[in-house]
């Protein structure tokens, strides 16, 4: 019987060396990583079809299995050929930080369980709050991602808004329905959040956007007034700081003013574009962000962190505590004066949690925030380049782009009618997936199907953008010739 699960010092050392080889091998091939590997679901399932292993496996064989079944077919998030959804490529410091953090296995929940990690999390919240022009005294918690950040922000909003009605004790039962407002371009994690929070999607007003995909302020105010007249309690306005479809940034200043006028909570979904507010070049578009009551951020997007990490910022720690604090005898730290200890478990839903902020802290220190901002700017510049190439080409058509890193376009050879172009672009998506050289997905803008390229990867260069257009053109023209 072994004394523990640990390897001997020598065994662990040699195992780590083999792991290093695997990691370095991955980086050596990154520039040519395919966007997607088109294996049938049954095939992938078959690789893992085995009974629960009772006995140990040879470690070298295990790493070979990891290489063949997990690394080699991995979707190309890290490499330069990924344009689908909003997938950033991670970064080396973040990756190493995950390993280091797991090495000391801190439970980042109560201060005395993870003193340094707690202070690091607080510091990262302050850094980012200040960098994006929100507040350098903001409170915040690291969460799973943008969905978690929206849920957490709306959770605080609901609890603070309904504090006097005893909502935390009696629930929403018997209360006037509270209503939420966001544009039709708002991310669907808001709907998920409203279901979780018991507010319900019937109480969500999706306000149409103008041609530039920003919320129509006149229609928003009309909807609020109509709800007031009908006896609802308008409670929260959601602004987009970068929509997922086109990167549109709502008029946050105007939304803040409306929220103030009607005494509502103002939540900003900055999951995609929030961090870019730190860039001088686009900062003016974010006017009003500083007035938000809560902001959702996603660091596995434009902070290039490995999955997963998001962040909810609010104006003060008291709001988080009022939302999440619950007493438990076994968690009371009666040992010492705890007034200067931040107890994250009292400010968030989770009890046990990993040290999410550590990878952000390490990457910002290692690269410098200036270098990270320069990479975000490069993504934005490459997007302008893509838009320009699409505009100049005879067989492409630019449909929408804004000031951030998304461009929506169609492959539209001349002499083809609109229905055929739509059908062709829809068929291009599965064809590109099968081909796998680049990975791009589509969306609908005001009802029209388009290809959507998201550029959010510090490893991308101009030649990669040219390659994307070449590959689509090659497959598209083939599909035309073959009918
Ligand atoms: C990505 C995104 C989300 C969801 O974030 P996840 O990290 O995928 O949960 C929410 N809102 C916007 C605007 C996003 O771009």
Automatic annotation (TrEMBL):
Q: Which Pfam families does UniProt cross-reference here? A: Pyridoxal_deC
Q: Name one GO molecular function term.
A: carboxy-lyase activity
Family per similarity comment: Belongs to the group II decarboxylase family.
Q: Which InterPro entries match?
A: Aromatic_deC, PyrdxlP-dep_de-COase, PyrdxlP-dep_Trfase, PyrdxlP-dep_Trfase_major, PyrdxlP-dep_Trfase_small
Name of this protein: Pyridoxal-dependent decarboxylase
Cofactors needed by this protein, per the record, are: pyridoxal 5'-phosphate
Q: Cross-referenced SUPFAM superfamilies, in alphabetical order? A: PLP-dependent transferases
């Amino acid at each position: 019987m072994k004394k523990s699960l640990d390897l001997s010092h020598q065994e662990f050392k040699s195992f780590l060396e083999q792991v290093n080889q695997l990691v370095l091998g991955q980086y050596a091939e990154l520039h040519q990583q395919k966007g997607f590997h088109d294996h049938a679901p049954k095939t992938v399932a078959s690789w893992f079809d085995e009974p629960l292993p009772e006995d140990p496996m040879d470690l070298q064989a295990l790493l070979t299995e990891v290489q063949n079944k997990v690394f080699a077919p991995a979707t190309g998030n890290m490499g330069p050929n990924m344009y689908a959804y909003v997938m950033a490529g991670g970064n080396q410091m973040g990756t190493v930080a995950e390993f280091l953090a797991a090495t000391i296995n801190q439970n980042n929940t109560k201060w005395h369980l993870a003193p340094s990690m707690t202070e690091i999390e607080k510091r990262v919240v302050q850094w980012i709050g200040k960098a994006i022009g929100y507040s350098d005294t903001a409170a915040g918690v690291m969460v799973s991602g943008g969905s978690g950040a929206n849920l957490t922000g709306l959770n605080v909003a609901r609890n603070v808004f309904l504090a006097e009605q005893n909502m935390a004790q009696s629930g929403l039962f018997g209360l006037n329905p509270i209503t939420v407002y966001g544009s039709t371009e708002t991310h669907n994690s808001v709907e998920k959040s409203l279901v979780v929070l018991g507010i319900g999607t019937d109480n969500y007003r999706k306000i149409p956007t103008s041609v530039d995909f920003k919320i129509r302020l006149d229609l928003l105010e009309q909807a609020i007034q109509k709800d007031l007249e009908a006896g609802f309690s308008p409670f929260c306005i959601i602004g987009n700081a970068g929509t997922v479809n086109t990167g549109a940034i709502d008029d946050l200043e105007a939304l803040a003013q409306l929220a103030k006028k009607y005494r509502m909570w103002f939540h900003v979904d900055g999951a995609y574009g929030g961090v870019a507010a730190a860039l001088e070049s686009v900062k003016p578009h974010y006017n009003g962000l500083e007035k938000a009551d809560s902001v959702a951020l996603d660091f596995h997007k434009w902070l290039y962190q490995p999955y997963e990490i998001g962040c909810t910022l609010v104006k003060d720690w008291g709001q988080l505590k009022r939302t999440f604090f619950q007493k438990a005898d076994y968690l009371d730290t009666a040992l010492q004066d705890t007034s200067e200890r931040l107890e994250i478990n009292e400010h968030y839903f989770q009890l046990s949690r990993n040290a999410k902020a550590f990878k952000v802290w390490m990457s910002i220190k290692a690269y410098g925030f200036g270098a990270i901002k320069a990479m975000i700017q490069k993504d934005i510049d490459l997007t302008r380049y893509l838009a320009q190439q699409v505009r100049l080409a005879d067989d492409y058509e630019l449909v929408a782009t804004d000031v951030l890193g998304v461009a929506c376009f169609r492959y539209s050879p001349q002499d083809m009618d609109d229905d055929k172009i739509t059908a062709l672009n829809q068929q291009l998506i599965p064809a590109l997936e099968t081909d796998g050289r680049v990975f791009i997905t589509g969306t609908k803008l005001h009802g029209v199907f388009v290809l959507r390229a998201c550029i959010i990867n510090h490893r991308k260069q101009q030649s990669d953008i040219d390659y994307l257009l070449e590959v689509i053109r090659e497959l598209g023209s083939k599909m035309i010739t073959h009918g």
